[in-house]
Amino acid sequence: MTSNELRQKDADYIAGTYARNPIVISEGQGVKLTDGEGRAIIDFSSGIGVLSVGHSHPAWLSAVTEQAGKLAHISNLYHTQPMAELAQKLCERTGMSRVFFGNSGAEANEGAIKTARKYMSDNYPGVRDTILCLQNSFHGRTITTLSATGQPDYHKHFGPWPAGFAFTPANDIPALTENCTKNVGAIMIECIQGEGGVVPLEGSFISKIAKICAREDVLLIVDEIQTGVGRTGKFLCCEHYDLKPDIVTLAKGLGGGLPIGAILFGEKTMGTLGKGEHGSTFGGNPICCAGANAVLDIIDGPFMAQVESNGAYLRAQLEALPGVTKVTGGGLMLGASLEDGLKNTDVVAACLKKGLVVLTAKEKLRFLPPLTVTQAEIDAGLEILKEAISSLR
């Protein structure tokens, strides 16, 4: 099938919910992609932060194919080794107490919200019924996770919305104090607002949240869907703030390319959900868990140090690039603001024509390369970016 034929088949049979780039991707290896015409492309997107250890990492591929030959699925009515091992690794790596497995970030956040509501109902019935979220946040595309998302553009067309959410501006401590009313039983944050424009929260703001939660028995939920699994140079981004959440959500990079989400519960919430109160048909799938186990084995201490080093290198090179005015984020999750007259979507299109995949976030360029990226590969990608920007200035 030619690329044109495949694009036409896509248009004929797949719901038109995505504005796809006009290329076909046929293969991936490490940080490199191959399109339908055999052209090599550098990938600085990781499938929107999913391919944490790159495309087709040998250890990941071996673990997944071996498990596929043993057991593909059985359901959560039975025990499986990959799931139990992954839960242990996650708890030991994060200091959390229990894990629930699902299939995506939205599903993990949905479960976190459900847990918070159960905790409020169990401990503060008739008093606490609200989760305080941040303006400019993004927590998923289900009805409930969209309700928790603090971006009005995502709220068009799909109401009526579930009640029980309030919003406060990021990095505004007086507003946080005012909006954390007696009805608030949980606060939900991203330490770096990814879809909101790669905007980090300030340490003083997070510290204030932590103090409120500890003093008032308000649950702290940290959405690590995009920031977690090593993306910022720590296994969890909240580690940079010495933060100990009651609930953490993971997905994206956890499966190394396979769909898996996880809710991590601290001591306070580990027993909130009882038998029959939550579930997922495909959650804890043996193949997905085998892939995630391989990912966790790969991203050890020395690997994390390399992520921090390469993240600092990427930031420095971006900051020196003509046309870039500011760089935000952390580790290998960075956003670049462009000078007036440059539109990020035009730069993305120009990069793609020249052989580089980058993303957008609000008005910025967004960079989420595989965590395995080398400095030589960073240099090669940024040379393309430099050429693309130069052609548009």
Can you characterise this structure?
About 35% of the residues lie in helices and about 20% in strands. It is built from twelve helices and 17 strands. A hairpin with a 4-residue loop joins strand 2 and strand 3. It starts with a helix and ends with a helix. Helix 3 runs antiparallel to helix 9 and helix 10 (about 300-320) packs parallel to helix 12 (about 375-390). It is globular and about 60 Å long. With about 400 residues, the protein is of the alpha/beta class.
Brief overview, please?
With 393 residues, the protein is of the alpha/beta class. The protein contains twelve helices and 17 strands.
For this entry, give a set of tags.
17 strands; 12 helices; 19% strand; four-stranded mixed sheet; alpha/beta
Instruction: Return Rg in Å.
Output: 21 Å
Strand order in the sheet with the most strands: 4-12-11-10-7-5-6
Number of strands: 17
Instruction: Give the oligomeric state of the chains in this entry, treating copies of one chain as homo and distinct chains as hetero.
Output: single chain
Point out poorly predicted stretches. none
Give a short account of the largest sheet: 7 strands, mixed
The first-to-last residue Cα distance is 38 Å
Please state roughly what percent of the residues sit in beta strands, choosing from under 5%, 5-15%, 15-25%, 25-35%, 35-45% or over 45%. 15-25%
Please write the string of helix (H) and strand (E) elements: HEEEHHHEHEHEHEEEHEEEHHEEHEEEH
Instruction: Please state the average pLDDT score.
Output: 97
Helix content: 25-40%
Shape: globular
- SS class: alpha/beta
Q: Given the structure, what is the number of helices? A: 12
